[in-house]
Amino acid sequence: MEKLNRNENSKNLEPLWFSENHQREENVVKRSYVPYIFLIPFFINLVVFSFFSLGFGVYMSFTNWNPFTPIGAAEFVGLANYVRAVTGDPVFLMAIKNAFVYVLYEPVCILLGFFFALILNTAIKGRSVFRTVFFLPVITSTVAISFVWNWLYDYQYGPFNEVLKALGLPAQYWLSYIEVLPGVPIALLSIMLMSTWQWIGLNVIIFLAALQSIPKEYHEAARVSGANAWNRFRHVTVPLVRPALLFCAITATAGSLQVFTEVYMLTRGGPINATQVPVVWMTMRAINFNEFGYGAALAYTFFLIILAVSLIEIRILRRGGMFYY
Amino acid sequence: MFISALKEQNEIFTRPVKWWPSNPHWWNFIETWNLPQPPLVRALLNSAIVYCSSTLLILLASSFTGYVLAKYEFKGRHGIFLWIVSSMMIPGFTGLIPSFMIMKWLGWINTYWALIIPGAFSAYSIFLMRQYIITIPDDIIDAARLSGCSEFGLFWRIILPLSKPALVAVGLINFVWGWNDLLGPMWFIHETSMKTVQQSLGSLFDIRSSVTSLPLVAASLTIATIPLIVLTIVTQKYLIQGWTGLSYAKR
């Protein structure tokens, strides 16, 4: 009885992600000082690189500090950096727009990944070979991949244009600012295409794991009850893979908004800032123009945007019945 | 990429595309040593030093923290865990500017420390380690404790060996991630001799018109990727387990 009460209490007090500890809690041995010794590395990091660093970063975003002057000599400029970021910096606003356009490659990537996973799941032989093949782009560095794709996109020698020419279509300047859709330069689409290719393997592997965890009996039962292939897919496979689907979609968004290497390597945010994204722009302001205070303001502005997006997504996640943490 | 590395300069541009060069130039791999800027061997060495040590540090710190969070009851445990879970939401780039300043104060710009130390904390690694260690039965720990094992002995002799799969996965992910990272080194390393592999490849990109030797560039790319491919194939099972949970969000 006592045990029951305790579980109920802790359920009321704690967030959901602790729930798995409930059974274990009474087994955990109490030793007063030992845990804190193990936690020393964590605390050092917490103080120096979390609290101190975050606090100082926020302070810096209110100053005009640059690395050549001591921090004490930096002038306090109040909210000027933030005002400039939001109202006086069209490139930053375009960068945010581009980042949100860039994220749209994710749904395509996830659906294609799901599709390939379905095919691979039916193949019995050679699965591990395919898995390795799909996984190679994921571990190859984006820098190396950008090299290769830069060559693929080459106007004169690139294979993409060769194919277009063979089909009788005009060759394209793949990395130019020519707009294919209103506000979307072709270079941005090219970067998105490269990312799709790079990350598809990861989605395949996640979905393959999810597909393989579906018990065979479910499909058998559905078949016995007279469900055809489409219905089995629609009512057995999809609902059971849905958690993996949502997980991919939501964790990928925050990561993709922070895109850096792809854009930096392929276009440097150019031509004329057409494919600029926030993290590249922040790095350029800080490293190339020495505007660290302003760079910090850009970082925190964009951080707030990402945070808002993530919170909305977590709400969707909860509604979808998912508690990952 | 690999095939281009074996070709001659003009062979790359021949049409139709040749899938295998008529006369493989294995020598290209050796010749990357002579690329004008930046020295690839030095860059490989830099990367190896930096990311091996930061991976070891991550493993040590995150298994410490994960172990404590999983197996001890103490004041502030829930607070710490909450902090770790929520700091997984903080994107990495927000820390770059303040870290740059701290590095400047410490005089660590252009040193290995600038890349090793900030990389040594990884909320995801702690989280994964905790999730794994929590599955180790308490009975084993109790038995060891009853046999007179000290708390640290417990960690070294029981917990670490038993959590080997998690250690391998977490270590590899962090290593691969660090090795492929360009943003961090770009902020903290400006001196040519201290650049990491990715930076070095990146600057090849800038001077590729003057080098005019695409096969050599391709050979450099291949050399830089081979360590990861070998590591991945050797430990494929663990790596995939770990990646699925980790990679996206860390990006």
Write a structural description.
The complex is a heterodimer of chains A (325) and B (251). Chain A is mainly α. Helix content of chain A is 68%, strand content 2%. Chain A has 15 helices and two strands. With 251 residues, chain B is mostly helical. Chain B has one domain (2-250): MetI-like (MetI-like fold), CATH 1.10.3720.10. Helices cover 68% and strands 0% of the residues of chain B. Chain B has helices spanning 2-5, 27-31, 40-71, 77-87, 96-106, 113-116, 123-133, 138-146, 151-162, 164-179, 183-188, 197-206, 208-211, 214-234, 236-250. Chain B is globular, with a radius of gyration of 22 Å. At the A-B interface, α2, α3, α7, α8 and α10 of A face α3, α4, α5, α8 and α11 of B.
CATH-derived topology of the largest domain in chain A: MetI-like fold
Alpha carbon gap, first and last residue of chain B: 24 Å
Q: Which stretches of chain B of 5+ consecutive residues score pLDDT under 50?
A: 5-11, 246-251
Task: Please identify the top-level CATH class of chain B.
Answer: Mainly Alpha
Strand content of chain A: under 5%
Order of helices and strands of chain A: HHHHHHHHHEEHHHHHH
Count the beta strands of chain A.
2
Gyration radius over CA of chain A: 25 Å
CATH superfamily of chain B: MetI-like
Count of the separate structural domains of chain B: 1
Kindly state the percentage of residues in helix of chain A: 55-70%
Distance between the termini of chain A: 29 Å
